[in-house]
Amino acid sequence: MRNSVIFCFAVIYFKVTIHGSENDLVHVPNTQVPELAKISKDNNDNARDMSYKSLQKKLKHFINLDKELTNLTLSQINSLILWTQQALVSLKEYQTKVYNKSVMTTNCTVPLVPKHGGLVCAYFDNVYYCKPMCDQGYDFSFLRRSRLYEKCGPETGFSWTSQYPGGNRLAECTASAIAISGQSSAYFKEKKCQEAVTMGTEEIYIDEFIKELDDNGITKNHKRERNILVCR
Prior knowledge:
By secondary structure, the chain is an alpha+beta fold.
């Protein structure tokens, strides 16, 4: 009986405490709301960084397993290769999810990433700008020398400008011995887009595109967290 009474009081105290906390949040002065939002964002950023660093540490440890690998059988190594391939598939799936989420928060449809190429995108003043790029050994199906990027925003009715009617296909890359249809910056210096990602040079292409937008007078309200380079 005594334990039941204590438990009841504990439940009541818990509910009152939670209710009080909710009231405190409801009655926070407006001047403090931006600060709370900043704290929440900082906490989310810190949690994201911690998750990234944890996964990065595990992957780095896996890469440097020479001593452990020499003691394994061929069958065990084959199993590790299979699991690694499955991990890569999962990472690519999450890459697609994050890419889709990033674009869809802008009210734009998700643009198709050209096969044998990629898209580098940046967000300025409620408009998403994406520059199609081709891998080495490929060129654009249509001439794009005067058409560095496509855009989507309020002035386009949140539809993508494109040479392809009625959709979100921004460009196509087809096999070609020479690349002449686009500007020189629209081709990857590495053999493939994915190599730029794995070599950690994606920021070079993003910065280059931002500079090109700046040269065209596009500078206002840049949302850096929406800078992306995505490959196919």
